[in-house]
């Protein structure tokens, strides 16, 4: 039986949007109120910030990259890495002088960090100039929270996990004109021992099948050329819906919508990655040939300690099936080096898996303890210096693999989506279906379009080419 979820519409908050618009029209320092939104962390945070910008747009806000020019400054935070948390506190501290110069400025923080008690306690004690704090589950309450902040004074804090509600209809102001994020679910049920996400974003809850389909169709009809479906574990989509649907079904349904676009998704968990999903990708018209499937460690013992719910054999089974069914499949992954208790011999099992699979690229991290997770309490006998040496060893292996793979593409003609201007004048940067970057000389009028490019040169991570005839 499916979990019980409440699917609500956003309409209750529209009145607060209007009230905020009236207040800010008077309170703004310039012709219109300006907001500076800084987003840390994953693509889900980016998607959340786009919703906040949608609500702010309804309040009459414009947007600026300069905190000094803003009437409202908001940091959307990430709790996955300790470095990101430290950076947020440092940047928040720097806002104190802005608040001193412009007392009417409202300063807020939201996102995953705000769902951690030790963080909010530190904010309340050490950063009294921060006016508004809210967590990931209060996103749809933002207009009411903001109204209370700008009218009643004092500090407004709202945190706490509400993982039984999915709110639809929140206005969205997307940052990209032809590339867009599309959340299909929220939360996570996996409880990997190193990960804080289930504690900050709550349990898995899927959006209704037709709501996702309709939003995808609207994006395609609006001219979006690349749509990325988002979830902490997209492969478990639909498990909690009353009307059962799999992620493979969702992909297949969207793929049938007419249009010229590419469909991507992230992130996949190996324990739920099915052969049905691989078959759908192999037979599709629009789905990317890039599969990001984090394996984290090549050691079965470490995987068990991580609570990853699969082993090396199962991971390689789905990888080999993908290689068999999807020509030129591009495989990428996440790897954690130096998980508590991992030995050098176990690390070498990770290296051997990397050599066997030959990934296009890897996102590699040295283990970072997160307060509140089981791994943070595990014995960790190896030093940071030892882990850094292992990390460098892994990077060297992957660089050799990437260079070899990129070199094999020289002479091929590939279809790419042109994303923008590169750092060198007159050069454009683009991306293949397999998520490989290709730079080539071209006119800015090509940005946002699909073109064919002949690969002429390979580097470790980036290809160079020329427009094909």
Would you mind describing this structure in some detail?
- It is a single chain.
- The protein is an alpha/beta fold and 469 residues long.
- It has three domains: 6-158, Methylthiotransferase, N-terminal domain (Rossmann fold, 3-Layer(aba) Sandwich), CATH 3.40.50.12160; 171-407, pyruvate-formate lyase- activating enzyme (Alpha-Beta Horseshoe); 413-467, OB fold (Dihydrolipoamide Acetyltransferase, E2P) (Beta Barrel).
- 35% of the residues lie in helices and 22% in strands.
- It contains 14 helices and 21 strands.
- The strands form six sheets. Strands 3-2-4-5-6-7 form a six-stranded parallel beta sheet, sandwiched between helices. It has a five-stranded mixed β-barrel with strand order 17-18-19-21-20. The chain has a three-stranded parallel beta sheet with strand order 9-12-13, with helices on both faces.
- Helix 2 (43-58) links the parallel strand 2 and strand 3.
- The longest helix is centred in the C-terminal third of the chain and has 24 residues, at 384-407.
- The model has no long low-confidence stretch (mean pLDDT 94).
In short:
By secondary structure, the chain is α/β, with parallel strands linked by helices. The chain has helices at residues 14-27, 43-58, 82-93, 96-101, 117-126, 142-152, 197-201, 209-221, 247-255, 275-282, 300-306, 312-325, 344-357, 384-407, and strands spanning 6-9, 34-39, 62-63, 72-77, 106-111, 132-134, 156-158, 165-168, 179-183, 185-186, 205-206, 226-230, 262-266, 290-292, 330-337, 361-366, 413-421, 427-432, 437-441, 450-458, 462-467.
């Amino acid at each position: 039986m499916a979990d019980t979820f409440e699917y609500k519409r956003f309409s209750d908050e529209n009145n607060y949007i209007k009230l905020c618009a009236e207040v800010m029209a008077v309170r703004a320092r310039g012709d219109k109120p300006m907001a500076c939104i800084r987003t840390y962390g994953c693509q889900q945070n980016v998607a959340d910030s786009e919703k906040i910008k949608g609500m702010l747009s309804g309040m009459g806000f414009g947007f600026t990259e300069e905190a000094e020019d803003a009437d409202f400054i908001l940091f959307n935070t990430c709790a996955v890495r300790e470095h990101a948390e430290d950076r947020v506190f440092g940047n928040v501290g720097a806002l104190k002088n802005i608040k001193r110069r412009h007392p009417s400025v409202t300063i807020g923080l939201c996102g995953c960090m705000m769902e951690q008690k030790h963080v909010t306690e530190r904010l309340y004690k050490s950063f009294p100039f921060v006016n508004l704090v809210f967590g990931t589950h209060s996103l749809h309450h933002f207009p009411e929270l903001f109204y209370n902040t700008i009218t009643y004074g004092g500090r407004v804090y709202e945190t706490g996990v509400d993982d039984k509600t999915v709110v639809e209809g929140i206005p969205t102001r997307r940052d990209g004109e032809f590339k867009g994020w599309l959340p299909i679910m929220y939360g996570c049920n996996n409880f990997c021992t190193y990960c804080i996400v289930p504690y900050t974003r709550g349990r898995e809850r899927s959006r209704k099948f037709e709501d996702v389909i309709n939003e995808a169709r609207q994006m395609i009809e609006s001219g979006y050329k690349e749509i990325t479906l988002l979830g902490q574990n997209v492969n478990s989509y639909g498990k909690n819906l009353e009307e059962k649907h799999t992620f493979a079904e969702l992909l297949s349904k969207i793929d049938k919508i007419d249009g010229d676009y590419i469909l991507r998704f992230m992130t996949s968990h190996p324990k739920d990655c099915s052969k049905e999903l691989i078959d759908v990708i192999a037979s599709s018209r629009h789905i990317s040939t890039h599969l990001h499937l984090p394996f984290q460690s090549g050691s079965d013992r470490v995987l068990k300690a991580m609570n990853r719910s699969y082993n090396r054999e199962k991971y390689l089974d789905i990888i080999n099936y993908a290689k068999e069914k999807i020509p030129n499949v591009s495989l990428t992954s996440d790897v954690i080096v130096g998980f508590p208790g991992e030995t050098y011999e176990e690390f070498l099992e990770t290296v051997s898996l990397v050599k066997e699979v030959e990934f296009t690229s890897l996102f590699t991290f040295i283990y970072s303890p997160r307060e509140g997770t089981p791994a943070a309490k595990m014995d960790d006998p190896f030093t940071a210096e030892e882990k850094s040496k292992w990390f460098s060893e892994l990077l060297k292996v992957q660089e050799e693999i990437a260079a070899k793979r990129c070199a094999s593409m020289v002479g091929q003609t590939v279809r790419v989506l042109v994303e923008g201007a590169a750092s060198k004048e007159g050069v454009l940067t683009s991306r293949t279906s397999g998520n490989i970057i290709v730079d080539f000389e071209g006119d800015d009028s090509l940005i946002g379009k699909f073109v064919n490019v002949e690969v002429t040169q390979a580097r470790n991570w980036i290809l160079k080419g020329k427009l094909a005839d």
